[in-house]
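Q: what sequence does this backbone want?
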């Protein structure tokens, strides 16, 4: 299927068939030069080295499968034909990897080669004995089991798929759905990476334009701090799917146009409408596909980006309310910069788009999570586990504060050179913009921290020396090792797009009546959360009898009117909130309009009428790329479909599933922890951490004797899920860090 022969790529007609202008071609040349200058392309020598490593790895798995076949007593014919094969996927297969990037690989083996005993047993042992292999780290209990290692200096992530075949042919085609027959869930998930990658390459009109655009967007996401699936943002496959959809909608566009259209489309996208490259096929194997009308779990997804290979799944289930808001903010910023470039505004170029996000200037309060271990192997295992739990901390803070306290997890970790076997993670914290709070009212996250510690302590492979601590730290008391070169900047960044825009908004806000402005901000935030919380209440659900019924709210909410908080100023460096009003208006319209725009009829439990992936959705092609009104209408039509009508408030499902998983792990872990108190896990993780937003750049160092760094330690609470501190003082056994959202002179 391709655009050159007149066939359409994607589930709708393109938005525009327009090709590039001279200015577009010039901007594309500048973009390509920029990507080369920042060293996003590997050298020829490194490319050859990767090919050699992959060839060697393929030889190793072939030797491995013959070895285990002989040990299992297979007959001579099967022994002679015994085979395994290596496939690649991810950035390497897509052709967008850079220098030093790892290679995602898949080993496909026969039915008699088991995952537990043979792959993580015999093959692991073979790799251990090879001098070329270093940093070998098996993760058999992961959602997608993987072995991580370096082979001759090249990083490898190796998955395993066990097929129902006795013999793996050398010309095996894993794109066929029949390959999934009788496969276990782990094999289906492992095969999914290769199948999705290959399908993406089949569904884009011009692969080279797709690759350049994707390379650009991956680099942009990393610079802006929104590239991390684990942290609740988007990973490589998510960005690839988003870019591929834009390539389908603008099949004749060059990379500079595609980057601009990327921001234009996704700034207007009404999440949780799903992004689809092709229609969702039910398949013949009975595997569950993404469908919020039938699968309760799918109703809770905030930003569905659906994989194009059977079984179609949501690749972005990790996205939370906070991370979605941050990404929408970044999309808006990118859209404004691209618009300025297209207008040839002075001092706006590709450098502007790729300016790094100044995370440690963006907030006044941070949560710091420190971990350590006794040796490098333990630290690597401990880091992997803790990183997988950090998203739960973000979700729990959102849940326990009813989304009034917003979290921004930094996607990376930081190391203090003076402390080996030690690393830190940071989360930016701020109150929800425009929400007033009464004097003395505070956010209490003691229970949240305690639950997070308990979850981390469930690690079944935990060893002595694996420690964790959590602390609150203010901006002015951040450790130096988080800054480039270990040197704290003498003053906040100036002259950047973000700082200029923040200053413009600050000046603009002073020209408006403060009360009116505050009310607008409050109304915007209230609308966002109201629509998020009540999405399930207004969603119509097809019942088994084919009738529609109203959903019911999942959780009760606190009234914004019961909180008395007001923004007295806007910090020029409070970058995260700079575009919030626009972004949250978009989110509000997204959820409201998505319900109004979709009409779904039901017959015997099945949905009739054109679906979002149905070729019957016509009339979306526009030959003029200058008609933004037409583009907006086209985007609205693209998002018409039945799925979003059934979206529920995506708050707790992943957490509930995760809590169940932790309880199951606790049974195995209980014996080793009965005599080990939570505090012995490294930490008496201090405190109440009831965070403060200081007025006028004041520091909270006066609240803590160690200069603004306060340990967070759990204390007994009478109400397990009550996180708003009552007006009456609570008796306390020890001094607690109390950081309120008013001002320091009002802190108690």
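A:
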């Amino acid at each position: 299927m391709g655009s050159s022969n007149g066939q359409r790529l994607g589930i709708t007609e393109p938005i525009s068939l327009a090709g590039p202008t001279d200015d577009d071609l010039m901007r594309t040349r500048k973009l390509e030069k920029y990507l080369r200058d920042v060293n996003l392309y590997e050298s020829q020598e490194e490319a050859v080295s990767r090919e050699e490593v992959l060839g060697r790895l393929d030889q190793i798995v072939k030797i491995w499968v013959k070895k285990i076949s002989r040990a299992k007593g297979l007959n001579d014919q099967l022994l002679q034909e015994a085979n395994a094969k290596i496939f690649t996927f991810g950035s390497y297969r897509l052709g967008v990897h850079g220098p030093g990037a790892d290679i995602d690989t898949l080993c496909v083996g026969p039915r008699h080669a088991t995952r537990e005993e043979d792959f993580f047993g015999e093959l692991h042992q073979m790799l251990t004995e090879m001098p070329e292999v270093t940093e070998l780290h098996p993760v058999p209990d992961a959602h997608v089991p993987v072995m991580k290692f370096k082979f001759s200096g090249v990083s490898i992530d190796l998955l395993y798929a066990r097929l129902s075949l006795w013999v793996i042919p050398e010309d095996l085609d894993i794109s066929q759905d029949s390959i999934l027959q009788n496969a276990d869930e782990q094999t289906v998930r492992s095969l999914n990476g290769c199948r999705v990658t290959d399908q993406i390459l089949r569904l884009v009109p011009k692969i080279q334009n797709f690759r350049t655009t994707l390379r650009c967007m991956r680099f942009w996401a990393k610079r802006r701090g929104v590239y991390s699936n684990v942290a609740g943002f988007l990973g490589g496959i998510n960005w690839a799917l988003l870019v591929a959809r834009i390539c389908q909608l603008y099949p004749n566009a060059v990379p500079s146009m595609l980057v601009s259209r990327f921001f234009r489309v996704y700034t207007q996208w009404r999440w949780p409408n799903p992004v689809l490259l092709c229609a969702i096929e039910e398949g013949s194997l009975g595997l569950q596909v993404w469908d919020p009308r039938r699968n309760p779990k799918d109703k809770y997804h905030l930003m569905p980006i659906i994989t194009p290979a059977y079984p179609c799944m949501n690749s972005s289930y990790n996205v939370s309310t906070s991370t979605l808001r941050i990404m929408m903010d970044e999309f808006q910023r990118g859209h404004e910069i691209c618009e300025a470039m297209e207008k040839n505004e002075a001092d706006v170029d590709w450098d502007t788009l790729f300016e790094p996000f100044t995370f440690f200037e963006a907030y006044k309060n941070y949560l710091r999570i420190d971990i350590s271990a006794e040796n490098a192997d333990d630290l690597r295992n401990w880091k992997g586990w803790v990183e997988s739990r950090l998203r739960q901390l973000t979700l729990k803070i959102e849940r326990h504060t009813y989304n009034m306290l917003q979290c921004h997890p930094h996607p990376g970790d930081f190391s203090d050179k003076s402390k080996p076997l030690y690393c830190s993670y940071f989360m930016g914290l701020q109150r929800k913009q425009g929400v007033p709070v009464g004097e003395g009212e505070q956010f209490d996250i003691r229970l949240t921290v305690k639950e997070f510690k308990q979850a981390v302590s469930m690690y079944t492979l935990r060893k002595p020396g694996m420690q964790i601590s959590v602390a609150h730290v203010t901006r002015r008391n951040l450790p130096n090792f988080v800054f480039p070169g270990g040197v704290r900047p003498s003053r906040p960044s100036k002259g950047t797009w973000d700082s200029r825009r923040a200053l413009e908004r600050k000046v603009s806000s002073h020209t408006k009546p403060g009360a009116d402005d505050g009310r607008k901000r409050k109304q915007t935030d209230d609308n966002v959360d109201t629509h998020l919380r009540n999405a399930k209440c207004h969603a119509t659900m097809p019942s088994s009898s084919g009738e529609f019924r109203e959903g019911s709210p999942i959780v009760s909410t606190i009234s914004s009117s019961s909180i008395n908080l007001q923004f007295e100023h806007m910090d020029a460096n409070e970058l995260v909130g700079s575009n919030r009003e626009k972004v949250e208006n978009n989110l509000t319209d997204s959820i409201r309009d998505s319900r109004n725009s979709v009409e779904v009829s039901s017959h015997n439990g099945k949905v009739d009428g054109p679906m979002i992936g149905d070729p019957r959705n016509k009339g979306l092609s526009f030959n003029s790329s200058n008609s933004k009104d037409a583009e907006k209408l086209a985007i609205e039509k693209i998002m018409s479909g039945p799925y979003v009508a059934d979206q529920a408030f995506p708050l707790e499902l992943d957490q509930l599933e995760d809590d169940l998983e932790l309880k199951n792990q606790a049974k195995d872990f209980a014996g080793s922890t009965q005599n080990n108190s939570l505090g012995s896990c490294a930490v008496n993780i201090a405190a109440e951490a009831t965070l403060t937003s200081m007025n006028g750049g004041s520091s909270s160092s006066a609240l803590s004797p160690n200069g603004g760094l306060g340990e967070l330690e759990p204390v007994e609470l009478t109400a397990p899920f009550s996180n708003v501190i009552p007006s009456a003082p609570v008796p306390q056994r020890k001094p607690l860090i109390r950081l309120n959202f008013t001002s320091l002179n009002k802190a108690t």
